[in-house]
Write a structure and sequence with these properties.
The protein contains 5 helices and no strands. With 124 residues, it is an all-alpha fold. The longest helix has 25 residues, at 85-109. The protein starts with a helix and ends with a helix. Keywords: Membrane, Transmembrane, Transmembrane helix.
Length: 124
Amino acid sequence: MEPRTKVLLTDGFLAVLCLVQVWLNIDDGVSWPLAALFTVTTVLAIYAGEHGATDRLPGSKITRTVALIVVLGAAILTGGYLLGPDLITSILLAGLAGLGVGMLCYRAYFGLVRPVPPTRLERV
């Protein structure tokens, strides 16, 4: 299978998984304006990662990834403790919705309309 096809299938599958999770839990309530914000943030983050904007940050890629996971994990745990489980569930569902829609939109543009960036093809 060629790298472009692998990228499209992998990113599409991950995006659909996020959206299915939101659909299965839609009764818990989703903040749609927050989901729109997460969508824009997702598109910008993927663009920055695939077009070299994050290469200027200190540390290796694995260090930046681990730091991001630690910060997000701490924010989720703190938010769950301070805001309560209902509000944090709504925020997490909005995040998943934004992640899914953002990944689909980005990969539709940089995959179907325009070519997949070479840095992403190298990571396949």
